[in-house]
Each structure stands twice: as C-alpha cells, then as structure tokens.
Amino acid sequence: MKLISYWQDTTAPPGDFRKIPVPENVDVAIVGAGLTGLSAALELARGGATVAVLEAHHVGWGASNRNAGMATTGLAIGFGQAVKRYGRDRAVEYYLEYDKAISTVESLVHEHSIDCDFTRSGKLSLALTPRDVAAMRTTQRAIASIGALPDLMVLGPDEVGKEIGSHYYHGGMVDPLGAGLHVGKFVSGLAVAAVAAGATICEDSPVVSLSREGARHVVQTTRGVVSAKEVLIATSGYTSALTPWLQRRVIPVGSFVICTEPLGDALAADVLPHRRMASDAKMLTYYFRLTPDNRLLFGGRARFALSSPDSDQRSAQILRSAMVEIFPQLGDRRIDYTWGGLVDISMDQMVHVGEHSGVHYSLGYSGHGVQMATHSGQQIARKLLGLRADLPFSGIAFRPVPGHVGPPWFLPFIGAGAHVVDRWNLLRGGKS
Ligand SMILES: Cc1cc2nc3c(=O)[nH]c(=O)nc-3n(C[C@H](O)[C@H](O)[C@H](O)COP(=O)(O)OP(=O)(O)OC[C@H]3O[C@@H](n4cnc5c(N)ncnc54)[C@H](O)[C@@H]3O)c2cc1C
C-alpha cells in the first residue's frame, strides 16, 4: 500500500521549481502553491502583474493534491441554516457562488486544455435514516425556490438502489451539477498555465517571516527575500504561526482517504452506476467516488488526528472496515493507496476572503475547496488587478476559534462530540 495520494502518484509534475531563484521584486507574492495560490497566480500573470508563488514543499503538496477531487454544489453548511443565519437573499447568493465556482473550474479546464477528466457526473448525498430523507426533501424545496438551478432529485428507500450498490443507505438526493476531476492533473495544469502566463513558482521555499518596509512587504523565505507590493496568503489547513491572526481562525482537521485497486468495469458499475460524487449525511461524513481508472476512493474523518504515516495507516484500517460495511462486495479488494491531509475548517464553516494588516487571504473552505479555492483565488487576483471581482464572502466576520493558540489541542474533543451527535442522530432516526 502506497502512503501517498493516488492523484499525485498518477500525475506528471508540472516542472521542477526547486532551484528557480526567488525574485527580488514582484507586484504580488503568494504563499502556498495549491488551488488558491495557483489560480490567483494565473489570473494575476495574465493581467500583467509580476507574481511569485512561494511554496514550502512542492506544487500541490497541501490539500489540493490530497482531496477526493469532487467539485460539487452546496455550502459546507445546509442551505436552511444559511437562510437562518444570513437571510434568504444572501444565502441564495452564497449558494449560487458554489455553482459559479464549478463553472470557473470547468472554464479553466477548457481554456487551458487541462486533461483532467472533468465530468459533470453529479453529486449523490446519502441518507441514513427517514429523518435524513425528510431533511433532503426540505432542501429540495428550498433550492427549487431559488429558481436558477436544475432540480434536485430525492430518492426514497425503493429508489436509492438505482444510484448505489449498497443496502446501507435509506435514501439519497442527486444534484446533476456536481463534477468530478483528476485533481492532481488539474493542479499540475494550473501550474503549467500560470508559468506560461509569466508567473514564477519557487518550491522548497518556506516563507519564514513577513514584515513591512514603507509601503512594501518584505517576504523572507529560506531561499531569499522578496519585496512585494501585495501579499496573498493561500495556506488553507497548513496556516501556521507565520500568520497568527489567521492561524487562530482556522481549525486544521485531518481527513483521510483510501483507494482500492482498479475494480473493473462491472464491479465499478455495480458500486456507483452513474459515477456520482457521493457523501453521506453524518457529521463525520464518509465520501466516495470512482477514479477515472475505476478504483473506489473512500474518505472520511476516520480519526481526529493530524495526518502522519502512522495516523494515515491507522485511518486506513478504520476506513476499510467502513467501506466493506457499506459495500460488502469489496471485501476481498486490495487497498493500493492511503493518505491524509488537513481541511481548513472555520468557526462558521464559511469561506473567508479579505485583508488583515495589509495582507490578503482566502481560506476556511471547510472541506469544499476544490471548486471554491480555484474560484476565490481567481477572484481575489481580479481584485488585486483593480478589476470587477466576485467576492460575496468578503463581508462575513471572521471569528477566532476560542482557545485556539498554537497546536489544535482540542481536536480529540471535537471528534468525540461529533461521534456522539452522529450516534444520537442514527438512534433517533431508527438506525442502530
Ligand atoms: C483528505 C481531503 C479530502 C478533501 N476532499 C475535498 C473534495 O472532494 N472536494 C472539495 O471541494 N474539497 C475537498 N477538500 C478540501 C480541499 O482540498 C481544499 O479546500 C483545497 O485544496 C485548499 O486549497 P488551497 O490552495 O487553499 O490550500 P492547500 O492546497 O492546502 O495549499 C496550501 C499550501 O501552502 C503551503 N504553505 C503553508 N505554509 C507555508 C509557508 N510558510 N511558506 C510557503 N508555503 C506554505 C503548503 O505547503 C501547501 O502546499 C479535501 C481536503 C482533504 C485534506
């Protein structure tokens, strides 16, 4: 079993940027070469700005190459909850932003001919109990009332079998707009496009300090110093003491993934006949999909721990048991890959885009960053270029996580709480 991401293992690197000299002067210095940083770099360079992307490791090292490659509609919180919090008009605006974000990914794929298997295969949300199905019907009505999107389809216990080869679930909901992609190839394609447009990427270049000299920022890396007019922090769940104000506002939660051997056409079609991007309705959700070569990629917050080789292997055992409970037909299938990564959860599970002490940031994607990091990076770049930008989330207050200074000591407590809530919801809904 390989302890690296399947996406990374099956992608040609976009280049070797480990020895590219760190530029002395740029218009914009970006910290982090994931989807946020690369998408921003591409847009900035196309707009004529000089830009340096400074990455501690290599392109896509963070969550961007470790996720499930699902670019789906919907906020990290339910639409009903968003209406309660922000009122109907803003909730609709926020919800539709995710739809725009998928279109941004799709446009970039086409514009730059990125061969990454982008397909609008649809999103499948899975219900464990009758209460979950009732909640899905409420969501379906609420989304229909927006009037701007295709209908969601809710499936009861008799129909869910058309969507999944499992007796584990009580129902489901299909959103046809959701997409899947080979995210490693997408990240790599973005990096190639950004460099072609004139951006400089520097790998093995951790930023160790940020300071000011007059109107300019002094960005110190281990390989040199950059003087920049603007700085964009694009560090997501890997946000550190470099930016303590942001670090206090992001909870880095480990999410883990296993990937089977190729299943073959018949078994793949049995497991997920329409190749949807699937996730279930628990707090500690399981998410799964087929890869382009018919492996089942199966992920979840198996443990409330940070990713490490030991943690990833222990998570793999937990995930494998869960996968086989849902799909007994995969009981004898080999697991070829396991890996983990950090998801950047904000207190309100909303995206946060803005500026603090003259430094720009975009993070808090709360597990929904494949589409939104790409879109948000592009839009923040447009703002920096002085163009019209689509940044509806910039008005949301960004609250610190109480007691969060330094390492996230509280993760096991959050995990235990989430287990209790899931257990209670299953018992209340009649599933033991
Ligand atoms: C297991 C897992 C599954 C997921 N599944 C999905 C999914 O299916 N769909 C979805 O929408 N979202 C998913 N996500 C979330 C999604 O991957 C992220 O929201 C998104 O990739 C964030 O991109 P980013 O560019 O902002 O950050 P990242 O890709 O995390 O990049 C941040 C980069 O910053 C660099 N960095 C940090 N500090 C410094 C420094 N001081 N100097 C230089 N560089 C630095 C890091 O090395 C890192 O490469 C998942 C995440 C995980 C971990």
Plain-language structure description:
The chain has eleven helices and 18 strands. The strands form three sheets. Strands 1, 2, 8, 9, 10, 11, 17 and 18 form an eight-stranded mixed β-sheet that branches. It has an eight-stranded mixed β-sheet with strand order 5-6-4-13-14-15-12-16. The chain folds into two domains: 247 residues, FAD/NAD(P)-binding domain (3-Layer(bba) Sandwich), CATH 3.50.50; 171 residues, D-Amino Acid Oxidase, subunit A, domain 2 (D-Amino Acid Oxidase, Chain A, domain 2). The longest helix is centred in the first third of the chain and has 24 residues. With 432 residues, it is an alpha/beta fold. The site of flavin-adenine dinucleotide has 43 residues, from helix 2, strand 12, strand 16 and helix 10. It holds the Pfam family DAO.
Question: What's this, in brief?
Answer:
The protein has 432 residues and is an alpha/beta fold.
Highlighted features:
single chain, 432 residues, alpha/beta, FAD/NAD(P)-binding domain, D-Amino Acid Oxidase, Chain A, domain 2, 2 domains, 8-stranded mixed β-sheet, 11 helices, 23% strand, globular, binds flavin-adenine dinucleotide
